[in-house]
TrEMBL record, chain A:
Domain called Anti-sigma-K factor RskA N-terminal: residue spans: 12-48
PANTHER family named among the record's database cross-references: ANTI-SIGMA-K FACTOR RSKA
Keyword set includes Transmembrane: yes
GO cellular component: plasma membrane
TM annotation in the entry: 118-139
One of the Pfam families matching this protein, by short name: RskA_C
Protein's name in the database: Regulator of SigK
Phosphoprotein recorded as keyword: no
InterPro entries per the UniProt record, alphabetical: Anti-sigma-K/W_factor (IPR051474), Anti_sigma_zinc_sf (IPR041916), RskA_C (IPR018764), RskA_N (IPR053877)
GO biological process: regulation of translation
Compartments where located: Cell membrane; Membrane
Domain called Anti-sigma K factor RskA C-terminal: residue spans: 126-260
Region entry Disordered, spans: 82-112
Native source species: Streptomyces spongiae
Automatic annotation (TrEMBL), chain B:
Domain (RNA polymerase sigma-70 region) ranges: 26-88
Molecular functions per Gene Ontology: DNA binding; sigma factor activity
UniProt keywords, alphabetically: Sigma factor, Transcription, Transcription regulation
Record-given protein name: Sigma-70 family RNA polymerase sigma factor
Signal peptide: none
Family: Belongs to the sigma-70 factor family. ECF subfamily.
Pfam families referenced in this protein's UniProt entry, alphabetically: Sigma70_r2, Sigma70_r4_2
GO biological process, alphabetically ordered: DNA-templated transcription initiation
Domain spans labelled RNA polymerase sigma factor 70 region 4 type: 120-172
InterPro entries according to UniProt: RNA_pol_sigma-70-like, RNA_pol_sigma-70_dom, RNA_pol_sigma70_r2, RNA_pol_sigma70_r4_t2, RNA_pol_sigma_r2, RNA_pol_sigma_r3/r4-like, WH-like_DNA-bd_sf
Length: 272, 180
């Protein structure tokens, strides 16, 4: 028994290098990590070997695609951090496309956290867009059935837009935190638009969304209902920006006040 | 600002710090993921997930346990390996189902085009390892194989592969030495 015990411990020690190279199978990795908590020598060895492994990583550095930066930064603006109060996991909505991840934080780990691997067909929806949607549904999780039904219908629209090969996301906020977020497919002329930080409206007033194009009057894309995202189609590909104004209930044919938020559409593929 | 300090600020919700951190680490993260995952579209996706994961879980970084860059690249590597393994598992399923035959690429040492100093130096040091050390290390780290799979591919006992990996990494450390 003691011999077996020692043997098994030595076996565990010998896993330090495969562990540093991420070359263990999941069950071995878990077993070794458990062992690490009680083995200072292994911890020191793993740390040194991991630093060596990381040297192998540096030599592979390559410039990331430029568009990735916009997507990641836009997603960051829409993504709560784990530690924040908003980081609590909303119930996973069943109607979200399978590739929309991030609706729940990964299980706590001491370091190098992993998330569930993704098996879904990929390629189309960006992580950024997925995260915008995930945050929308975090809000909607607290609503009534009627509202959820509406949201569900909308989520199909959203899934369609996410599935467009050219779907891209962007988001802008002014110094006072007022802003517009959009996930759009320029090719299909469709978009999901969200508002943030605009505050409460006086009674009898609504937020109206406008499409701005060069040398043309603004065109209404619809009225916001509370903080529900607005799904719109028929966006012209020469559109330059979106604008939001405060209008009387029912909306206006043309804006009757200055925009309180604006968002340029160039980074999501319009106006090119 | 150093990555360590930036990561701590990011953990506090500082988006500007994240932008700066992005500038520092997006290249290494993307390059590493692409080296392991190979497929460009999937690489971009995994790299994005890793960078967002940095934002979401920056609070888990513990400066006492190593440098921020190591933490970040360790995370990136693990996610890349997870992806390439699930892709391989899917390929194997397809093969079993007779849908198509596909043999995974089997080149060990990077054939990268861009030649930075670090890259050249790592290559130089990899060449100074014994062939079994080099293959054990690179099949695992760059190609995402488990040590059991490496043992199978090289027809070596498991114990030998573990030792070669350890010796390979240690010898790399001695060779890479002072070059930062």
């Amino acid at each position: 028994m003691s011999l077996f015990g020692r043997q098994s411990k030595r076996d565990l020690h010998s896993l330090a290098a495969p562990y540093a190279l991420d070359a263990l199978e999941p069950h071995e990795r878990a077993r070794f990590e458990k062992h690490l908590r009680t083995c200072d020598r292994c911890t020191a060895e793993v740390r040194a070997l991991s630093e060596d492994a990381v040297r192998l990583a540096w030599s592979t550095a390559a410039p990331a695609p430029l568009a990735m930066r916009d997507r990641v930064l836009a997603a960051v603006r829409n993504t709560p951090q784990e530690a924040s109060p908003l980081g609590a996991a909303p119930p996973r909505p069943h109607h979200l496309p399978a590739h929309v991840w991030g609706t729940e934080p990964p299980p706590p780990r001491r370091r190098a956290p992993r998330m569930r691997p993704l098996f879904a067909p990929l390629a189309t929806a960006t992580a950024a867009a997925a995260l915008v949607v995930a945050s929308l549904f975090a809000v909607q999780a607290t609503r009534t059935q009627d509202q959820l039904d509406t949201a569900r219908a909308q989520s199909r629209e959203i899934a369609n837009i996410l599935a467009a090969p050219d779907a891209r996301a962007t988001n802008e906020r002014d110094a006072r935190g007022r802003g517009i977020g959009v996930i759009a497919s320029a090719k299909e002329g469709r978009a999901i638009v969200t508002l943030s930080g605009l505050g409460d409206l006086p009674s009898g007033r609504v937020h109206q969304l406008w499409l701005m194009r060069p040398d043309v009057q603004p065109r209404s894309l619809g009225l916001f209902q509370g903080d529900t995202p607005l799904v719109t189609s028929g966006m012209n590909d020469d559109a330059t920006s979106l604008a939001v104004t405060v209008e009387p209930n029912g909306g206006s044919a043309q804006p009757t006040s200055q925009p309180i938020a604006q968002l340029a559409l160039k980074s999501v593929g319009f106006g090119e | 600002m150093e990555a360590d300090e930036l990561l701590v600020r990011v953990a506090g919700g500082d988006q500007k710090a994240f932008e700066e951190l992005y500038g520092l680490v997006s290249g290494p993260v993307f390059g590493l993921v692409r080296r392991v995952v190979r497929d460009p579209a999937q690489s971009e996706e995994v790299a994005q997930e890793v960078l967002l994961e940095l934002w979401r879980s920056a609070g888990r970084f513990d400066p006492g346990r190593g440098s921020a860059l190591s933490w970040i690249l360790t995370l990136a590597h693990r996610r890349a390996v997870d992806r390439v393994r699930s892709a391989r598992a899917a390929t194997e399923r397809e093969q079993r189902e007779g849908m198509r035959a596909h043999h995974p690429a089997f080149d060990q040492v990077a054939e990268e085009v861009e030649a930075g100093l670090e890259r050249e130096w790592v290559r130089h040091c990899l060449e100074r390892l014994t062939s079994l050390q080099r293959q054990s290390v690179t099949l695992a780290y760059y190609d995402g194989y488990t040590y059991r799979e490496v043992a199978e591919q090289l027809s070596l006992p498991l114990g030998t592969v573990k030792t070669r990996m350890r010796d390979g990494l240690t010898r790399l450390r001695e060779c890479l030495g002072g070059v930062a």
